[in-house]
Amino acid sequence: LSIPKDSTGPGTPWIPLNLSLHILNKSIEFILDRGEKIISALDMMLTGLNKAGSGKIVYWSNHNKRPEREALIKKVSKATNLHFERIIKNHRLPDGRKVWQRDYDFFRREPCLHDLHIMLWAACTIVISTLKPVRIDELLDLEYNCLKYKEKDGYWLKQKVAKSSTQGERVTRHYPLPTFAAKTITYLQRLNDISRSYTNNGHTTEN
Questions:
Q1: How many Å is the Cα radius of gyration of the chain?
Q2: Mean pLDDT of the 76-82 span
Q3: Which residues, in sequence order, are CB contacts of 83 under 8 Å at separation 6+?
Q4: How many whole angstroms separate alpha carbon 59 and alpha carbon 92?
Q5: Contacts of 160 (CB under 8 A, 6+ apart)
Q6: What pTM did the predictor assign?
Q7: Can you tell me whether residue 30 is helix, strand or coil?
Q8: DSSP assignment, residue 6?
Q9: Mean pLDDT of all residues in 19-28
Q10: Which long-range contacts (CB under 8 A, 24 or more apart) does 169-174 make?
Q11: Do strands 147-150 and 154-166 pair parallel, antiparallel, or not at all (unpaired)?
Q12: pLDDT tens-digit profile of 128-155?
């Protein structure tokens, strides 16, 4: 959670501790409160779309699919106890008024399932980068199977360390990882699994 190094400064300044802890706490609260619900909702929603044979029912402008879309949203929302009324962003309110992309208050009040998915991904990333500080390039370079569990020794994170490179090749090392940070990695893995399973069947929400 460091910010870019100032060209005149002695080193890389860090986000103030109180702000960093506030962001971390909010991320943890979001994951604990909605993490499982969002993953379950995504899985159920994509399964429903797969059975429908087309991702076109997600689009608000497709009025022919509106009853099918609303029935699916209601079913998933009730089953997961996760309130949302749209699958993807709708830029118009029911009365026809347009909602601009930067109307953050609107999207905070009524996030669509896609918004919730992105928020969960972001919260998990924040937890990982805070509880196990890594550089941005190291974070982006984490592999799918980066998480290891050792009996009586807890979780370990396998990562390529930027400052331990040999002839341009980064050295792979294992570092101890807090249990909750490990949990967020499993969430990201599950999101990845759901996405791959759906797209590998030849169905995407863009078709």
A1: 20
A2: 92
A3: 77
A4: 12
A5: 138, 141, 170, 171, 172, 173
A6: 0.77
A7: helix
A8: P
A9: 93
A10: 170/141, 174/148
A11: antiparallel
A12: 988 886 778 888 888 899 999 988 889 9
